[in-house]
Amino acid sequence: MTVGALGSTVGEGVKGQPWPRHLAWPRLSHILTWIAAQLEGQRAHLMLYAPFFLLFGNWLYFSLYFEPPLWLIAVLAVATVGCFLLRRHSTSALLIGIFLLGFSAAKLREIEVATPMIRGATNGVIMGGWIANFADRANNARMLEIVVDDISGVPDDEHPRRVRLYAPDAQDLQVGDYIAFDAYLA
After folding, report:
1. Pairwise CA distance, residues 50 & 101, whole Å
2. What secondary structure letter does DSSP report for 19?
3. CA torsion, points 59, 64, 66, 70, in degrees to nearest 10?
4. Does residue 160 surpass a pLDDT of 90?
5. Is the pTM of this model over 0.85?
6. Is 100 helix (H, G, I), strand (E, B) or coil?
7. String of b and e for 90-117 (b: at least 16 CB within 10 Å)?
8. pLDDT score recorded for residue 15
9. Helix, strand, coil % (nearest 5) of the chain?
10. What is the pLDDT of residues 29-73, one digit of tens each?
11. DSSP-derived secondary structure for 60-95
């Protein structure tokens, strides 16, 4: 049986015997050189790897235990542009740029869809708004989606933009109607 390692000589291994001492473990520089050579060999098929690097960037963002600051995303965006400019000289620069694009895109999407959230259940909330959508439920009830115009009883930093409301006997309400009501929000 032939045993070999990256950057080492080939030696004979014996089953049950320890790793031969004359075989050296590969150095990090040898591993990086080997990875770069493999990437250059895959240059023609590089775009097949793009979705995986985008996904890996998204995964890394969502696996963080903290929320990265916006200035870090700006730095990563500049680094992404730099990697894309270097793509003709280095295949790995393109893949790193795609990875950074996935990370940055996840943060920018999080900023885009961010909305205030209520910390807990609230009683005695008086609100008004326009009906944006509805779905019919059993027993003449409707699930209404309300675009909130006015609200009281909730701290200013927790004002929701939209709420879903279960309303029994609301068959006469239509999209675009303005309604005001007392609500229990959760």
Report:
1. 10
2. P
3. -40
4. no
5. no
6. helix
7. ebbbbbbbbbbbbbbbbbeeeeeeeeee
8. 63
9. 40, 25, 35
10. 888 888 888 877 887 887 888 899 999 999 999 999 988 888 998
11. HHHH-SSPPPHHHHHHHHHHHHHHHHTTTT-HHHHH
